[in-house]
Amino acid sequence: MSENTSFAFVANLLDVNCNLPFKVIEDCYFKKADSIQIVQIKKSLLDSGYFYEISNFNLSPYELVYVEDLNTPNQKVFKSQQLEPQNWRYYILTFKENNSIIHDLARITNLAKIEL
Q1: Which residue of 11, 43, 54, 83 has the fewest CB atoms within a 10 Å radius of its CB?
Q2: Range 87-105 average pLDDT
Q3: Which residues pair with 67 in a beta bridge?
């Protein structure tokens, strides 16, 4: 895997249970974002206003998980729990050359019966 690559953020909240990185197609890999990429992703999300409400509290859905609150036995209540940075769920696709490969992958995934 070449280090001279671009990347695209996978905005879906994924629960990935496989060895990373893995090759999607030639010169395109699915992997966890590194710390520098995470800074770029967070800035881009903040600039876009995508998470405006929660960004005021310095929260990100990629940095937390919801767990059942066991202190409420008569009802199901969930609370957010902050993940350790190594468990954050910022995933990316790395690729060489230009963004056309991401456009092609997006079109291909539209053919799948499940959401990719």
Answers
A1: 43
A2: 86
A3: 79
